[in-house]
Amino acid sequence: MTTLKSPVTLTIDGKSITVEKGTYVIDAARQAGIHIPYFCSHVKLAPDANCRMCLVEVEKMPKLQTSCNLPVAEGMVVRSTSEKAEQAHKSVMDFILANHPLDCPMCDQGGECELQDRTHAYSDNYSHYTEAKRLPEKRYFSPYIEREMSRCITCMRCVRYCDEVLDVKAIAAVNRGDRVEISTFMDRELDCEFCGGCVQICPVGAFTNRVALYDYRPWQLKKTETVCAYCADGCTLTLESKVSENQIVRVTSDWEKGRNLGDLCAKGFFGYHMINSPERVAAPMIRQDGRLVEWPWIEAIEAAAQRLSEIKRRYGAEAIGGVISARCTNEEAYLFQKLLRLAIGTPHVDSSARDGHLNSVRALTRVAGHGRMTAPYEAIEAARVVMVIGADLTETNPITALKVKAAVRKHGANLITVGPYLKEIGPISNLVNLSQAPLTVTPGSESMVVRALVKAVVEERLIEPSVAAQAQTYVARVEAAVTQLPWPVAEARTGLSADAIKAAARSLSGAERAVVLFGPELTRQAGGYDAVCALADLAILTGLYSKPGSGLNPLCEENNEMGVVEMGAAPEFLPGLIDVRNEAARLRLREAWKEELPSATGWSLTQMLEEARQGRLKALYLVGEDPLGSLPASSGVRQALQSLELLICQDPFLTETGRLAHLVLPAAGFAEKEGTFTNHEGRVQRVRRALEPVGEALPDWDIFGQLAAGLGHPLDYASAGEITDEIRRVLSDRPDGRIDGAVMAQYLADLTAEELEARYRPGPGAASERGRGGGSMTLVISQSLFHSGKLSRRASELMRIEPEGRLQLNPSDAERLGVEDGDMVRLRTMDGSASREAVVPAVRRAKIAPGFCRFPGHFPEAGVKELVDWSVDPVTQTPYFRSGRVMIEKAVGAAATASVQAAAREGV
Amino acid sequence: MASRITRLLKTIFLVEILRGLTLTFRHLFVRSITRQYPHERPDVAKRFRGVMSLLRYQDGGEKCVGCGLCEVACPSNVIKVVSAEREGTPLKRYAREYWFDLSRCVFCGFCVEACPVDALAMTPNYEYATTNKRDLLLSKETMLALGDQYFPNQPPKPAYIGSCESEMYLLSAKQQHYPTKSDDQG
Amino acid sequence: MAHTPYNGSSQRPAGLSEAARLELIETAKRYPIKRSAVLHGLRLVQREAGFVTEAGMRDVASLLEMTPHEVYDVATFYTLFHLRPKGEYLIQVCRTLPCALGGAESLLSHLEQRLGIREGQTTPDGKFTLVTVECLAACGKAPVMQVNDDYHEAVTTEQVDRLIEQWHRTPPVQDAGNASTRGKGRG
Fold this sequence. Notes:
The complex is a heterotrimer of chains A (908), B (186) and C (187). Chain A has 908 residues and is α/β, with parallel strands linked by helices. Chain A is 32% helix and 18% strand. Chain A has 5 domains: 7-98, Ubiquitin-like (UB roll); 104-274, Alpha-Beta Plaits, CATH 3.30.70.20; 285-355 and 567-730, 3-Layer(aba) Sandwich (Rossmann fold); 358-554, Dimethylsulfoxide Reductase, domain 2, CATH 3.40.228.10; 771-907, Beta Barrel (Barwin-like endoglucanases). In chain C, strand 3 (145-147) and strand 4 (150-152) form a beta hairpin.
């Protein structure tokens, strides 16, 4: 038993129990195994005591007390089953049931309804009420969430959840007394984040999932606990499926399980339709006479193996490369790199984590030995100061954002947001609203803010004493380096005053527990690697690495970015983030695998494309990757793919790249396979199989195994679990998320004054003038709350919520351009004499800073990705294609580029 | 000794056989209880548990709301219900499909007891023998026809005051052009 | 789904006047949390428009950094906020027990008959709105009705007829919006 800080002993129903001071009686009873009935109380919410169901008798108190908001006291004697208490329970039930309709047979909550359960346990089979029941007028609420107010017991859980946890406040209790209805402003259609929280938290059937309306009865569903395949937050989902139909019917999440503790976002709650999408590839396909035709599995694998061997014989193994998606499991990434490195013998293996995440992994591995978050979700919630840099957290990582909201709203943390964002109250929550002193910066200057913060820490003497004492040379070198960055330059480029930056630095270093989260607008913008290195300096100097409860947290986009890199699906890393050039480590791996592995550093994704264009790479094996759909044309991706002799695409869907492929192999989706995902915290979580794969699709690891056998180099595993065991064996000595002190000491000693100086020297030209487009507005390709990569494009409900990409810009910019919501705007860039343009609908968002605009990257067909600058990081080979300078004008009478292109495609 | 003589005499005069035949002959004068099925049909008890049927209300509307309680109550997995929102009638739950596998039914009547809307009834029909086993899988239409045949005079739909299932309520949703789920997705 | 922010619209239909906006901003400064001034904001809206308008609620929401849903929540809770236009004369008849015993029901039906409207309705000419309310805290002189800011105690049908005649001729004293300062002990 854990020791309690200040124990309080009380008696509940004759049972003596000792709990922590401040515990509520209802929770103390639960710990003692005594169930006190309740409706409005909930683990996620502050007590409200409005349903009156949890009344108990307390000795020396004249009246019955609500146990959900009654803190325990020493020597308290509570009776929940006394005659008086039981009579109260019956009366409350009578009141609640007075207006509740008897429509359980058609109510979707029937069978998992808290009111049903309590009625059976606490009510007489008799009602004192003979009057007509209240039947509120039925009004349409939302296509996603069904509201049935006659069933409502006004416990307000939904309203409280929407406020306390989500900070969205999209629903409210309208009217009063027995006429209370949960509704929206003027009873309009619901417009919110669509997290489904109100549906999940409703104890009765007042809120139900309209997408699954009447499709199921709870007891018919098979429940499979797995991990979400969209973003890297790593939420535990319960996929509920009908076995006979092999279909996911709905998704829920357990309030007491997983990293998300029951909270979901729209992607998790409504995004499951991609699993049973009709667009899934059901059988292998081979290109014959320019067309893809279905082919039997055995022959497809044979053909793949044969052609790969052929290319290996003619051009050598180095002419073959492979890229795996960061949506694959750890087991698959591990086996994939084994397949390429051992069975084929090429060092060219990469993953989609190259697209930004490698910047933080490379920098943080250098500093701390691993690239995971150093402050887990619990630490974020408990932090005194939270800084979010370069991410619109609600849109990129909604559940991590909930942890930050909890830190601010439940524990009173000080939140500092850094980004080109302003306060805005809208249907989607905004972290800037919770920040007392948000730093609204010039778009694209996040990395400069980081450098300025380091400068402020050094100049204001805010360096953590232990660091100052232990790493004197390093501190001295940083002190010298930051003089390269004069304050006026920093102020001009960031748009912030030196005082504001200094104040932020002060609160960061002065906090007992501080957490810094950084995201795509730092890691995916040019100079991302250097920016993360500078951020690491900030973390070291302010003690984020040494103070308990503090940490530096990189945010990932795709669900397993952290995992695939750790599994060695990167040319520079072997499994366990071991540098490929590390001779000793490679020898150890050779021993474990009992095989020789290539020693050279392979090509990254960008290098592979370049080498393909040059004719040195002849075959490319893409697993779940669609470079043609995601990279801009200026990267030369199409030309590269067309010059390949063999292109194998293994994907659950036929992607744009897949249409060019010589061989398409149908892969199983995340709900159809076993394995593990590593979320951005570094938690490795089980993925479980809920459905049979669609058609002939197979799990990726199974395909790799068959292909390896076809290549005459068997990699035999009977199940994904066997691969997990091998990974565990091979990587038993790798770091588990703790900071590697030796690595950090080495880093601090090795860091040269030259490198530091280069890091803090402001580059030529102001950050806002960066980019070749020549326009006046900064465009950033961003992520949307309702989408994740292009996978969510296959989820029909998410496509209904957000069917098209819209350019978000500040209302003042919109006014200047004469643009209303939904109007078409033309974006134009000039690159030398060549001009490129895209026409997209615009939407005004007060959140977006003036001079800044962003477009969700999930809609590549809109052509906006062709307008951004393409560059490649010299150190990490990360492709940068998410920002640029554009000219915007109103496009009168023009159709969106997307629809024009769609029409053109249909014509072909 | 005497008993042995008695037994001998009884054996000689076939006493036991005569006694038995007496009973047989007596039955010649008793009314026969064997029915000449199928020419002669028995009257079944009022609560006889025969083939299952689905009922309608007086106006012809199906009683079944597709709650699936019969499905869980069934001890031998006879029933499969697929519920949905009725096209054109927003919020109206009904059984889009109802399958009843008579070949497995044990006629326990649990489903009838479980039904919250009295949509199920057991007909007095016991003549369902067939040469094709597939005929024993009853569809919703078959079962409704059976209901119409055996229980033709059903009461009107109760008002269900205060319930979302009441006609008034469904009508108000319809008048508001409340879209059904299929409209939403279309 | 548009996901339009609540305060993103640049073209604002008539909400709060500039003076009222300034007053609300000033009032909000008196509270540790801005949103505490929501009741005052709604009163300002009602004072200017005669009832709580949609645009007014949106304005209050954006000034006090709330969502319109929350403001609507508050506005619908208080019976002294009117979400629909009301007549020049707001006749509130008490329907609590002492008044009911004192003849409030016949008073109400007389008013209904006389004005040609039902409880909760407004006359077509926009002159009268008739509503029932809970205790007006003048039980000693039942039945009681409150008309705009004035109490009428122990009213008889003859008195009502006389008053209605009188009101038909004259517009009310312009202080209707401040009714909430005096109406106490309701609900």
